[in-house]
């Protein structure tokens, strides 16, 4: 899924990616937080492998897709921060109030948009 997310970020227009991420989930499982933790663990295990180093947006997209496929409602969040003389961006995934993928850095970013979740 991470490889597909990397390709999508590179070749699919961002409007299509974020429209996909914002679709309502059809079949939801409310008490699957352990599975959500496994998804986050799986993403972090694949990233250090050769050729799989991915920035935050492909990681967040892959996690969001894997969670949706398991029926777990998640939010793909985008934020910005002013660091030194330039603006930096970051993407992370939230399940409920927990930040799963990319959440360790999310605290210093101002949220701009969130896609997905329960409608």
Tell me the β content. 25-35%
Structural class: alpha+beta
Number of strands: 4
> For the residues shown, what is the average pLDDT?
86
N-to-C order of helices and strands: HHHHEEEHE
Provide a concise account of the structure shown.
The protein has five helices and four strands; from the N terminus they run ααααβββαβ. A hairpin with a 2-residue loop joins β2 and β3.
Care to describe what's here?
This protein is α+β, with helices and mostly antiparallel strands and 119 residues long. It has one domain (2-116). 42% of the residues lie in helices and 25% in strands. The protein has helices at 2-11, 14-21, 33-46, 56-69, 103-106; strands spanning 75-83, 86-95, 98-101, 110-116. A four-stranded antiparallel beta sheet has the order 3-2-1-4. Helix 1 (2-11) crosses helix 4 and helix 3 (33-46) packs antiparallel against helix 4 (56-69).
List strands and helices in order, with pairings.
Layout: H1 2-11, H2 14-21, H3 33-46, H4 56-69, E1 75-83, E2 86-95, E3 98-101, H5 103-106, E4 110-116
Antiparallel strand pairs: 1-2, 1-4, 2-3
Helix pairs in contact: 1-4, 3-4
Task: Please give a handful of descriptors for the protein shown.
globular, alpha+beta, 25% strand, four-stranded antiparallel β-sheet, 119 residues
């Amino acid at each position: 899924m991470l490889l597909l997310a990397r390709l999508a970020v590179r070749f699919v227009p961002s409007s299509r990616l974020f429209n996909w991420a914002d679709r309502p989930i059809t079949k939801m499982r409310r008490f699957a937080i352990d599975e959500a933790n496994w998804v986050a663990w799986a993403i972090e295990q694949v990233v250090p492998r050769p050729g799989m180093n991915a920035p935050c947006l492909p990681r967040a997209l892959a996690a969001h897709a894997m969670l949706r496929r398991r029926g777990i409602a998640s939010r793909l969040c985008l934020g910005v921060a002013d660091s030194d003389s330039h603006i930096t961006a970051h993407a992370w995934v939230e399940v409920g109030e927990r930040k799963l993928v990319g959440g360790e850095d999310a605290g210093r970013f101002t949220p701009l948009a969130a896609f997905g979740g329960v409608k």
